[in-house]
Amino acid sequence: MTPQFLRAEAARFREMAEAVTDREASRQRLLGMAADYEMRAKVADENQPPEIEPMVSEAEAEPAIDEPVEVKAERKRPGGRTLRLAR
Questions:
Q1: Among 14, 21, 42, 57, whose CB has the most other CB atoms within 10 angstroms?
Q2: CA geometry: angle 7, 13, 18, nearest 5 deg
Q3: Burial of 31 (C-beta count, 10 Å sphere; 0-12/13-18/19+)
């Protein structure tokens, strides 16, 4: 469960506790659940791994589409001559 989810649930439990006016035990139970979820969210925030930045940016990782691609290939043809392909 993510910290955001836990905090949303804690808020929902608090709203439910406010709506319960005739049952003090239910109200206390809902407020206790809200406090528990808030504590879980705090612990989850502290234990999340730090964001790791990529060592190579996306712009450097792949060549741009506008850049020419150079391909050279050599292939032996029958008769000993070499056929050179360049693009």
A1: 14
A2: 130
A3: middle
